From TrEMBL:
Belongs to the short-chain dehydrogenases/reductases (SDR) family. This is Short-chain dehydrogenase. It holds the Pfam family adh_short. InterPro entries: NAD(P)-bd_dom_sf, SDR_fam. Signal peptide: none annotated.
């Protein structure tokens, strides 16, 4: 991956997002770490070093996304990692719908909002990679997990968004894919078997695909999964 490429990562102050930032930095990519709190992003950027930049970006706030675009400018890689899991232990009949709405606001609409901001610039420049961090809980092939109904449905919708944006960008040099990182040990899932560093490799691989790589796909490592 050429060193002139710049990647913006949402929700990158900790967990998987931070690990992806470190992995891409190690591959020679310039990195912009973003988080809802600018101080958190700046602290992480300072820890990572290597010229890592930081910016406040709240994916649920249109003005915050607009300000990040104006300040950061065009990027070559977008890793849409920011996400929430608010309804663990629920079921589709009893889950409070305000939790579902809050989940969709981040996991789907937030990802969509950031893509609308940064993807057109990639298409104009003729090269780009967009990676949505998804989950097998939203896969029809695996079976949507009813124990986190809002989260699962939000990831199903995110997978649908991936295919639509990939179709929109096809032929422009921009590849748009979703990654299933597997059960990853983060604050969201502290007892998961896979480390954030391990999962970050899969995300970074999707973010640095060659020009003949897949688009509109659901990826897990070097495998393409059924939706």
């Amino acid at each position: 991956m050429a060193p002139e490429h710049t990647a913006l990562i949402t929700g990158a102050n900790r967990g998987l997002g931070r690990a992806v930032a470190a992995e891409l930095l190690g591959r020679g990519v310039r990195v912009v770490v973003t988080a809802r709190c600018g101080d958190d992003a700046a602290r992480t950027a300072g820890e990572l070093g290597g010229g890592t930049r930081a910016h406040a970006l709240d994916v649920t706030d249109p003005e915050s996304v607009r300000a990040a675009l104006e300040s950061v400018g065009p990027v070559d890689i977008l890793v849409s990692n920011a996400g929430v899991l608010l309804d663990a232990g629920s079921d589709p009949l009893s889950v409070p719908l305000d939790l579902v709405e809050a989940t969709f606001a981040v996991n789907l609409i937030g990802s969509w909002r950031v893509a609308q901001a940064f993807l057109p610039g990639m298409m104009r420049q003729g090269w780009g990679r967009v990676v949505f961090v998804s989950s097998a809980t939203g896969s029809f092939r695996v079976g949507l997990y009813a124990g986190t109904p809002g989260y699962s449905a939000s990831k199903t919708a995110l997978n649908g968004l991936t295919t639509m944006l990939a179709a929109q960008a096809r032929g422009t040099g921009v590849l748009v894919n979703a990654v299933n990182p597997g059960l990853t040990r983060t604050r969201m899932m502290p007892s998961a078997p896979r480390s954030a560093e391990e999962s970050a490799v899969d995300v970074a691989d999707a973010a640095t695909l060659p020009d003949n790589g897949p688009t509109g796909a659901f990826l897990r490592g070097d495998r393409t999964l059924d939706w």
